[in-house]
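Lab meeting, item 3. Inverse folding demo.
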């Protein structure tokens, strides 16, 4: 027991030899004798279930987040990013046009035309290592399999080339917390080249996977594949060091600093899109945790550069390979693992402290003297812990760079984060837990001022909020389901006032489509009969994006209809004009 008190114990369910080697290299780290042992670190190559996470003790950490499949499965990544793109078209233009098949099959087939020979890449939604990927230019070759989900993307036919070869980047991103998000990008990365010289896709070469695909598992089978022999050489082999390639690009006069900034931006925006769901799963499984430190994940972001050196996100891997088949692999992956484990701050004292706290709580519970902190008190504790942890991490980054959070980055991405929360609440039909942020919200700052109405140091009288009537609650739910905020905007209020005076045709839509409804329509002296719309009809609606085709999904007794856009957005109780 005395020896265990000074040790860190790890349990590995992994096929990679580098993991026990790295873990065993730390002082006082020992491998656990069995899975039932009181370990500090659980590492698993595959995803970990919520049930298993719920059984972890407060001082234990595991290398996956429950719910990270919302971006690591290709179809989920596409759906979540498309939702964000609808809100922010310019900010979320860093991934290719995407369709989820067979859901978007009809819209996808419209992309094919005789005038333009476009190329698309089709991927199984849960595939890996390039398995099942193929290119199509003919609508007849599009798979129609309603038992399998595919992801179709527009093929980037003008990629940036290295020595005439197409390539992509494998970047290692450590997510060390979900509330707040703690995102770090490692300076080490891999550049993976196709093993055959690139030619633009045509009907004759679509099957040449070693020209068009950059997956290492595919290209290493090519007799022409060359392993890297010098990690510092940016022109050696079909797998190269990202650091060496960056240095080479600088010598060629390219703006690498802007490129890196754009890559960091797309990483943060991708993870912010799913932060609300990650936080929900985390707090549902571990409701008493205040440290936000029981989960971490090393993600593999696959990024491709086009001919203008613009980065495009291809996919996110929840279990990037840690195989070491060359010196380059060993150098990069060993440093990524070592820096990750150091940044996670495994110390025996933290375990002992958690055990003491658990014992004290049990004693208090037995005596009936447990004092439960209020939500505001709890959030203040979590915020203080987050600030202390951030300060420590900034002193121990090694080769990692912090992308998020900082007070500056929180302010920069706050509007995107707020939109992600609203989308999640709309989809779940509930209210999200308030996110922990390092920077104090403006309303809290105002409330803390002496003499303010809600000052904690001044007037302590609670402000009673007016309770909503059942009709108001129903309106809020309908607005959230329609993709709007809970409270109407001023412009919408004007429309409601106009409708109360006699204009019965105003409709509330989603934020992107409000322009179709916010215009004040003068009542016509002669009412035009409403169109007879039936379920299954395809009709046109006018939005900010122009005229869009939608499917009628339901027809209500009051004449209103439910419609679904091609991108999957669903709007209820729309009144046809």
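The presenter then showed the designed sequence:
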């Amino acid at each position: 027991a005395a020896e265990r008190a000074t040790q860190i114990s790890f349990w590995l369910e992994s096929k990679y030899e580098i993991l026990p080697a790295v873990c065993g290299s730390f002082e006082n780290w020992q491998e656990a004798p069995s899975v039932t042992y009181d370990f500090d670190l659980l590492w698993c190559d595959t995803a970990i279930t919520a049930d298993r996470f719920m059984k972890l003790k407060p001082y234990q950490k595991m290398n996956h987040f429950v719910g990270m499949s919302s971006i690591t499965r290709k179809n989920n990544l596409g759906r979540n990013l498309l939702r964000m793109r609808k809100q922010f078209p310019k900010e979320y233009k860093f991934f290719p046009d995407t369709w989820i098949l067979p859901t978007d099959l009809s819209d996808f087939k419209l992309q094919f035309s005789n005038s333009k020979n476009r190329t698309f890449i089709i991927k199984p939604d849960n595939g890996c290592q390039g398995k099942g990927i193929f290119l199509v230019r003919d609508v007849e070759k599009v798979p129609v399999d309603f038992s399998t989900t595919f992801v179709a993307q527009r093929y980037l036919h003008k990629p940036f080339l290295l020595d005439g070869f197409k390539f992509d980047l494998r970047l290692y991103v450590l997510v060390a917390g979900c509330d707040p998000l703690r995102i770090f990008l490692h300076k080490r990365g891999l550049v993976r080249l196709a093993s055959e010289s690139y030619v633009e896709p045509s009907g004759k070469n679509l099957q040449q996977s070693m020209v068009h695909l950059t997956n290492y598992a595919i290209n290493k089978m090519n007799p022409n594949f060359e392993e890297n022999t010098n990690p510092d050489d940016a022109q050696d082999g079909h797998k190269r060091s990202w650091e060496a390639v960056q240095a080479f690009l600088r010598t060629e006069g390219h703006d690498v600093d802007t490129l890196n900034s754009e890559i960091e931006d797309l990483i943060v925006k991708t993870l912010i899109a799913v932060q609300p769901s990650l936080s929900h799963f985390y707090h549902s499984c571990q409701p008493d945790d205040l440290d936000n430190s029981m989960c971490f994940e090393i993600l593999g972001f696959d990024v491709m550069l086009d001919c203008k050196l613009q980065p495009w996100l291809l996919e996110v891997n929840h279990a990037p390979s840690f195989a070491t088949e060359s010196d380059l692999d060993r150098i990069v992956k060993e440093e990524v693992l070592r820096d990750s484990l150091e940044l996670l701050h495994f110390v025996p004292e933290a375990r002992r402290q958690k055990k003491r706290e658990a014992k004290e709580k049990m004693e208090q519970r037995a005596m009936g003297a447990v004092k439960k902190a209020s939500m505001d008190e709890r959030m203040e504790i979590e915020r203080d812990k987050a600030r202390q942890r951030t300060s420590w991490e900034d002193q121990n980054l090694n080769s990692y760079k912090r992308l998020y959070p900082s007070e500056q980055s929180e302010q920069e991405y706050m509007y995107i984060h707020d939109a992600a929360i609203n989308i999640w609440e709309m989809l779940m039909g509930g209210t999200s837990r308030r996110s922990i942020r390092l920077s104090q919200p403006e309303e809290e700052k105002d409330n803390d001022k002496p003499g303010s109405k809600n000052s904690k140091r001044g007037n302590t009288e609670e402000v009673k909020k007016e309770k909503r009537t059942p009709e108001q609650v129903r309106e809020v739910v309908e607005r959230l389901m329609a993709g709007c905020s809970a409270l109407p905007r001023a412009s919408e209020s004007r429309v409601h006032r106009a409708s109360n005076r006699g204009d019965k045709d105003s409709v509330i839509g989603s934020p992107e489509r409000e322009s179709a409804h916010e215009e004040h329509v003068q009542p016509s002296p002669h009412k035009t009969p409403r169109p007879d719309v039936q379920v299954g009809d395809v009709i046109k609606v006018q939005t900010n994006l122009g005229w869009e085709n939608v499917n009628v999904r339901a027809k209500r007794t009051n004449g209103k209809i439910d419609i679904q856009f091609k991108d999957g957005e669903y709007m209820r109780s729309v009144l046809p004009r």
